[in-house]
Amino acid sequence: MSSHEHEHPHLPEAGDGMPGYYEIMETAVRELLVEEKVFGPGEIRHMLEVMDTRTPALGSKIVARAWVDPAFRSRLLANGRTALEELGIDFFEDTQLMVLENTDTVHNVVVCTLCSCYPREILGLPPDWYKLKPYRARTVKEPRVVLAEFGTVIPDDVEIRVSDSTAMIRFLVLPQRPEGTENFNEEQLAALVTRDAMIGVTKALTPVEEQSR
Amino acid sequence: MVLEKSASAVPAEALDSARKPSVVKAEGAEPLFKAGDAVRISIRYPVGHYRVPTYIRGKRGKVEAVIKPAAVNNEDEGFGRNAGVKRHYYRIAIPLGELWPGYSGGHNDGLLIEVFETWLERSST
Q: Where does the pLDDT of residue A196 fall: very low under 50, low under 70, confident under 90, or very high at 90 and above?
C-alpha cells in the first residue's frame, strides 16, 4: 500500500527488512521538506498524535445527533465540514465531506478503488479490508454480492449507490435509524452506529443486536 | 461545499449583465457542465499522477452535481505545475449496467464518482 500513501505521509514503520523504493522516497521527500523548513519534525509528530485521537466514536456521535436533530441533519447533508465544526470537530484535510443518507429506497456504500481514501478525521484509520484489492475491485462491480458477504442483504427494489472516493471528497454514510429506538437518548443511539454502518457495508445495529454483542 | 443542482443561466441575468460593466471571469472559474448534463468520460492514458480509474473511461453517465469550490488539477500539481487555474470536479452518476454489461443486480444500481472537468466530454445521450 505504500505506493498509495502520498496523501497521508507517515513516519516509516519499524520493519526488519531493507526499506522499499517508496519508503526511501518518502524519507527523502520528508527530510527535504524539513530541511527547507516547509514544516518541522514536531509538526509531523503532532499530526500523528491528532490522527490517533480520531476514532469511529466521532462518526457515531455525528450520526446520533443527526437522528435526533432534523435541523442539524439538514445542515450535515448540505455541508459536512461546516456541520462538523458545530460539534467542535475539525476536518483538517483539504477535502470536503459529503454525507450520504440511506433511506427506504436508497442504500449507499463507499469504496476507494484507487487507494484508501477514507474520512479519517471522523472514523480514524480504515480497516484492512477497505484497503485491500478484493473489496476495492468488487464493490464497484458486484456490490450486492459484497454486501451479502458482510451479512447485508438489500432488496432488489432498493437502489444501491456505490460512491467511489477518488479525489476531493470523503464520504460518511448516514445509516437509517433502527426501529424500536424512539426513547433512546443520543448516547444510546451512538452505541448502535458501527464503523461498518458508516462505510455502508452494514446497517446500524438494532437494540437487540447491540445487546447481544 | 456547495452542490449546484442547477446552474443554468436565466434570461433575467442576461438582461442584468447588459446594464452592468462586463466581468471577465478567470479561465475555469465557471463550471462547463451542470447537473443533468449527459457526459462521457474521456479515453486517455496520460503518464503520471491521475485519479480517473480505467474502468470508467469511455463510459457514459450524467452530472449529478457540480462540486464547489473549484480545485487545481492534481495531474498538473503532481508535476509541480500549477499556474493558479482551477476547474471543477463533478459528481458523475454511471449506471452499473453501463459499466458492466450483463450486470445482474438491481436495475437502478449505480456508481457515483468525482471526475475532473478535463476528463468530461459532452454526450448526446
A: very high
Residue count of chain A: 213
Give the closest of A80, A143, A164 to B113, CB-based.
A164
Say if the Cβ atoms of B113 and A163 lie within 8 Å: yes
Neighboring chain B residues of A171 at a CB cutoff of 8 Å: none
Report yes or no for ipTM above 0.90.
Answer: no
CB burial readout B59-75, b (16+ within 10 A) else e:
bbbbbbbbbeebbbbbb
Distances in whole angstroms, Cα of residue A116 to Cα of each of A3, A112, A113, A130, A187: 11, 5, 8, 7, 30
Residue A60 known to be catalytic: no
SS (H, E, C) A77-124: HHCHHHHHHHCCCCCCCCCEEEEEECCCCEEEEEECCCCCCCCHHHHC
Residues A59, A31: one domain?
Answer: no
Fold for the domain defined by B3-20+31-122: SH3 type barrels. (2.30.30)
CB contact under 8 A, A113 and B55: yes
Phi and psi angles of residue A178, each rounded to the nearest 5 degrees, phi first: -65, 155
Specify the pTM.
0.84
Q: Which domain holds residue A26?
A: 15-52
Distance from CA of B123 to the nearest CA of A (A): 22
pLDDT at B124: 83
A188 falls within a domain: yes
